[in-house]
């Protein structure tokens, strides 16, 4: 059995947002840059995902988005910044706990490090239901994401990103 405990001082961090991780991916714009320290898989989590996200000054990890299936919670460990939720922007600081339930654009969210010199570090916790449908209100995109185990038992991810006005007819090509 996997040891169900890890100390955040022992996490290793992977670059996210500026390092292409999957075939066909484009590099993120300069406003996105983060490091993610995976926790969930290391402690045997099955229904919740956990990571520590580190945002450098002036950066964000993800575009403004909402989830139709999964709920997220953030706990600010160090630093300060802002979170956009729907049409509102809120200041956040060390010790703040933030709920981002599943829903439409009114639940869209994005954390931004507004500091000129300090990192913003937070614990992110999410339900891990799949498939997931996410929307990106600023750009008019949507994503359908399915995570499952491949035949070899290793995680497999399918992601489709598009815009509703680019949809093809169900019967096209049949």
Provide keyphrases for this structure.
mainly beta, Jelly Rolls, globular, 44% strand, 6-stranded antiparallel β-sheet
Helix content: under 10%
**Biggest sheet layout:** 6 strands, antiparallel
Strand-pairing-aware structural class:
mainly beta
Extract low-pLDDT stretches: none
Q: What name goes with the CATH superfamily?
A: Jelly Rolls
Report the C-alpha radius of gyration, rounded: 17 Å
Descriptive report:
- By secondary structure, the protein is mainly beta.
- It has a single domain (8-129), classed as Jelly Rolls, CATH 2.60.120.10.
- Helix content is 2%, strand content 44%.
- It has one helix spanning 40-43, and strands at 14-16, 34-38, 48-55, 66-67, 72-78, 80-85, 88-93, 97-100, 109-112, 120-127, 132-136, 141-149, 155-163.
- The strands form three sheets. A six-stranded antiparallel sheet has the order 1-2-3-10-5-8.
- β11 and β12 form a beta hairpin.
- The radius of gyration is 17 Å and the shape is globular.
- It starts with 13 loop residues before the first strand and ends in an 11-residue tail after the last strand.
- The model has no long low-confidence stretch (mean pLDDT 92).
């Amino acid at each position: 059995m996997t040891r169900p405990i890890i100390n955040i001082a022992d996490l290793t961090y992977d670059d996210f947002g500026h390092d292409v991780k999957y075939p066909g991916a484009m590099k993120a714009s300069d406003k996105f840059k983060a490091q993610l320290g995976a926790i969930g898989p290391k402690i045997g989590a099955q229904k919740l995902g956990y990571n520590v996200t580190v945002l450098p000054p002036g950066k964000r990890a993800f575009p403004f988005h909402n989830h139709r299936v999964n709920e997220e919670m953030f706990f600010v460990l160090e630093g300060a910044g802002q979170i956009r939720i729907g049409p509102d922007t809120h200041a956040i600081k060390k010790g703040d706990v933030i709920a981002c339930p599943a829903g439409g654009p009114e639940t869209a969210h994005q954390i931004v490090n507004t500091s000129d010199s300090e990192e913003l570090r937070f614990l992110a916790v999410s339900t891990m239901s799949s498939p997931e449908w996410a929307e990106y209100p600023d750009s008019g995109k949507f994503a359908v994401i399915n995570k499952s185990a491949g035949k070899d038992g290793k995680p497999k991810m399918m992601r489709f990103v598009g815009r509703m006005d680019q949809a093809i007819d169900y019967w096209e090509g049949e």
